[in-house]
């Protein structure tokens, strides 16, 4: 077995037998990795802390050549992200982001930019309104996966530049008013929302968060992106359903951009 040491973020954990865990974590070098941590419950809270959800740590794992379930031997915490587990909104949104990464990526398929995106998102989550952060994160995750909607011109006739148009969920692209008959279910997108979407799809995460937008525009963009994502996935994720069920009771986070 090959031995590897890598930094990673914990996406998911699952009990295994009486005292062990199956941990799914995301790394910059190896992509998504799944492994077993043996005897974690017998060795106390200190060892368990390295495998808490959302934890950023350095892990040592033994790679099995004939299985994608490896043996994890050690964890050295770099950032516990305990603040994300102390608040309902932190758990809900961080859980959603983790499930999205888990759902969209394959085992041991490296995506270092997705790792950096998730790590930076966790850093901002306690200080930026989560609903706003969600839209930027999902848009940029779609970009890295090659799923980003086509926003530069009309998909059908090629007309550009489009300052407004209609977003086809089915095609994942814009269509102009003259071509609306090609997809009558396409959703209207105004110039303001379209400009923000283009910015989110190109600019760095931190740069996107520095600029505030009206709640109306943010809600419109979130609806478009979420509807498109659910269509591509062919389902609504469990964490998405949970997030939607509690959104009305969440206390708004005060924005404190560093």
Structure, explained:
With 258 residues, the protein is of the alpha+beta class. The protein has a 5-stranded mixed beta barrel with strand order 1-2-3-5-4. Strands 7-6-8 form a 3-stranded antiparallel beta sheet. The model has no long low-confidence stretch (mean pLDDT 91).
What would a concise description of this structure say?
The chain is 40% helix and 23% strand. With 258 residues, the protein is α+β, with helices and mostly antiparallel strands.
Keywords:
five-stranded mixed β-barrel; three-stranded antiparallel sheet; 40% helix; 23% strand; 9 helices; single chain; alpha+beta; OB fold (Dihydrolipoamide Acetyltransferase, E2P); 258 residues
Number of domains: 2
Q: End-to-end distance, in Å? A: 44 Å
Model regions low in confidence, pLDDT < 50 over at least 5 residues? none
Helix content: 25-40%
- Mean pLDDT score, rounded? 91
Layout of helices and strands:
Blueprint: E1 2-16, E2 20-27, E3 31-37, H1 44-49, E4 56-63, E5 69-79, H2 82-86, H3 88-104, H4 112-124, H5 130-145, E6 165-168, E7 173-175, E8 187-189, H6 191-202, H7 205-210, H8 215-233, H9 238-246
Helix pairs in contact: 3-5, 3-9, 4-5, 5-6, 5-8, 6-8
């Amino acid at each position: 077995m090959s031995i590897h040491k890598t930094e990673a973020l914990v996406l998911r954990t699952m009990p295994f037998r009486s005292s062990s865990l199956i941990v799914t974590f995301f790394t910059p070098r190896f992509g998504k990795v799944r492994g077993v941590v043996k005897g974690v419950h017998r060795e106390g809270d200190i060892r368990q802390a390295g495998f808490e959800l959302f934890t950023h740590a350095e892990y040592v794992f033994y790679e099995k050549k004939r299985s994608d379930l490896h043996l994890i031997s050690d964890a050295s915490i770099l950032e516990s992200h305990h603040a994300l587990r102390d608040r309902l909104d932190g758990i809900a949104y961080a859980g959603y982001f983790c499930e999205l990464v888990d759902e969209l990526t394959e085992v041991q398929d490296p995506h270092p930019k997705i790792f950096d995106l998730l790590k930076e998102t966790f850093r901002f989550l306690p200080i930026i309104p989560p609903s706003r952060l969600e839209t930027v994160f999902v848009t940029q995750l779609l970009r890295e996966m090659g799923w980003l909607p086509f926003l530069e011109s009309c998909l059908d006739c090629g007309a550009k530049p489009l300052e407004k148009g209609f977003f086809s969920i089915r095609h994942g692209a814009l269509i102009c008013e003259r071509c609306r008959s090609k997809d009558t279910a396409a959703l209207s997108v105004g110039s303001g929302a379209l400009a923000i979407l283009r910015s989110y799809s190109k600019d760095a995460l931190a740069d996107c968060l520095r600029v505030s937008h009206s709640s109306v525009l943010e809600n419109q963009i979130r609806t478009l992106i979420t509807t498109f994502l659910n269509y591509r996935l062919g389902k609504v994720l469990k964490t998405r359903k949970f997030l939607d069920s509690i959104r009305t009771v969440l206390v708004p986070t005060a924005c404190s951009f560093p």
